[in-house]
Amino acid sequence: ALETVRDKRSRMPHICTRKLQGPVNAALTACGLCPVGRDWLFDMLRSKGMLVEKRRRGPRTTNSYHRFGAYRNLIRLIQPTGPGQIVVSDITYIRSDEGFAYLALVTDLYSRKILGWDVSDSLSVEGALRALKMAQNGLGRTAGVIHHSDRGIQYCCTDYSTSLEEATMIQSTTEIDHAAENAVAERVNGILKGELGLGETFRDHAQIRRAVSEAVTIYNWERPHLSLDYNT
After folding, report:
1. What is the sign, positive or negative, of the torsion defined by CA atoms of 106, 178, 145, 113?
2. How far apart are CA 75 and CA 108, in angstroms?
3. DSSP 8-state code for residue 84
4. In the chain, what are the helix, strand and coil shares in percent, each to the nearest 5?
5. Segments in the chain forming alpha helices (H)
6. Of residues 61, 60, 64, the one with CA closest to residue 151
7. Do the beta carbons of residue 170 and residue 112 sit within 8 Å?
8. CA 162 → CA 35, 123, 146, 165, 211, distances in Å?
9. pLDDT tens-digit map of 18-71
10. Coil, strand or helix: which one is 170?
């Protein structure tokens, strides 16, 4: 069991114990051994000092007090029935010895696939626009796709709204509780930082970009997702 945990954590350093139970039991069954329960696995990892530690708080990345208009929350009562219908966006920070870098992400709400990302040295709109462009290329068809985000200045400013309009995407933002109304995007940030190593402090921004590229690949193609019945 420990070897399986170490193998998974070599690629996903902070993957939670619940998601390790399936691979551990598959390995045990393949060896002719009995599967273990979640509590046993928690106790075993706790005894080895291998439970995931809580992350530190970081800088605020959302400034919703600005001169630009806001939009209605269009996804509050909408459940997508397939990919390419709704995308969610957010920005988070990553630490380095050179200072903070800022990761902009665009994720498909239905499939949970990260469609666009960008690492920037600042919180200006350019990083968010580059992530959006990558996502638009990944979507192919953008007409009628709902783009949801918090009410941060990067997403409500003229440049970003114009880019959405030109792609005939429909803009939606949070209205009151920004974290809860953009929960999937917030969760993606937490997974990348809490499970896939982006919560560490890196040497420089170049190392951050390499780490983000690897983390997104693992997130999209290797990590089991609870919301997808443990599929990738």
Report:
1. positive
2. 13
3. T
4. 40, 15, 40
5. 2-11, 17-30, 38-47, 125-139, 153-156, 158-166, 183-194, 205-221
6. 64
7. no
8. 54, 19, 14, 5, 31
9. 666 667 667 767 777 767 666 666 666 667 666 565 555 555 545 454 455 678
10. strand
Considering the entire predicted model, what is its pTM?
Answer: 0.72
Give pLDDT tens digits for 84-106: 999 999 999 999 999 999 999 99
- What is the C-alpha separation between 97 and 167, in angstroms, rounded? 38
On whether the CB atoms of residues 71 and 47 are closer than 8 A, the answer is no
The answer to whether the beta carbons of residues 18 and 45 sit under 8 Å apart is no
Does residue 137 or residue 33 have the better pLDDT?
A: 137
Polymer length of the chain: 232
Rounded Cα distance, 229 and 98, in Å: 39
Give residues with Cβ within 8 angstroms of 159, minimum separation 6: 125, 129
Q: Note the pLDDT tens digit of each residue in 182-196.
A: 999 999 999 999 899
d(CA 84, CA 27): 35
With a cut of 70, say whether residue 171 has pLDDT above it.
yes
Whose tokens are 């996804």? That residue is: 75
